[in-house]
Amino acid sequence: MRTTLLTRTHDSLRFIGITFFGSLLMALAAKVTVPTGLVKISLHPLLPMLFGLMFGSRVATASILLYLTEGLMGFPVFQSPGAGLSYMMGPTFGYLIGFVAEAYLAGRTKEAGLLNRNLLISGLVLVAIYHVKFILGLSWLSYLKQFMGLPISSVIHAGYTLFIYNTVAHLLILFGYTTYKR
């Protein structure tokens, strides 16, 4: 009985520690950017999926939810200046929700062993999961576009095309990690 209690306590402390560390890393990664004109490039979008692959769905999802809660409470954790509900409901809302989905899906994929099969399947799974944030982000931007009067091509350009190089670099890092961890 005592061993079980110690094991559960250790597991809970590990969960809490990694969750807080993950939210801190998200905040730090959001602040370290490389300006490339219209878009700032950072490691920020890479981390939810990497957390899922490293720590599993529960810890990764909890880390991203804690990060979003910190931003909702007004802490300056996001890439651009601003925080709180009004910031979160802006153009980045879909991407922020996509971070949660991505962390969960990457963790579940790891837990199910889908990345241990072959390189092609692993690569396709990583690409599909990484694009979840773009699907949710572009959906939200499309919803907002009706109020701003922007054509859909502008939404796709601003919400996806500008991030192509960043996406390729992140996918190569994720693919390298999953290949190394085989």
Q: Could you name the key traits of this structure?
A:
single chain; 182 residues; mainly alpha; Arp2/3 complex 21 kDa subunit ARPC3; two-stranded antiparallel sheet; 73% helix
Protein architecture, described:
This protein is mainly alpha-helical and 182 residues long. It has a single domain (2-180), classed as Arp2/3 complex 21 kDa subunit ARPC3, CATH 1.10.1760. It is 73% helix and 3% strand. It contains nine helices and two strands. A two-stranded antiparallel sheet has the order 1-2. A hairpin with a 4-residue loop joins strand 1 and strand 2 (40-42). Helix 2 runs antiparallel to helix 3 (57-72), helix 2 (47-55) packs parallel to helix 5 and helix 5 (93-112) packs antiparallel against helix 6. The model has no long low-confidence stretch (mean pLDDT 87).
Strand content: under 5%
How many helices in DSSP terms? 9
- Got a strand count? 2
Q: What overall geometry do the principal axes of the alpha carbons give? A: globular
Q: How big is the Rg? A: 17 Å
Major pleated sheet: 2 strands, antiparallel
Low-confidence runs (pLDDT<50, min 5 residues)? Answer: none
Helix fraction, binned, reads: over 70%
Gross CATH architecture: Orthogonal Bundle
User: Helix/strand-derived class?
Assistant: mainly alpha
CATH topology-level fold name: Arp2/3 complex 21 kDa subunit ARPC3
Estimate the mean pLDDT confidence. 87
Query: Can you write the helix and strand succession as a string?
Result: HEEHHHHHHHH
List the helices and strands and how they pair.
Layout: H1 2-31, E1 33-35, E2 40-42, H2 47-55, H3 57-72, H4 85-88, H5 93-112, H6 119-130, H7 132-148, H8 152-159, H9 164-180
Antiparallel strand pairs: 1-2
Helix pairs in contact: 1-2, 1-3, 2-3, 2-5, 3-5, 5-6, 5-7, 6-9, 7-8
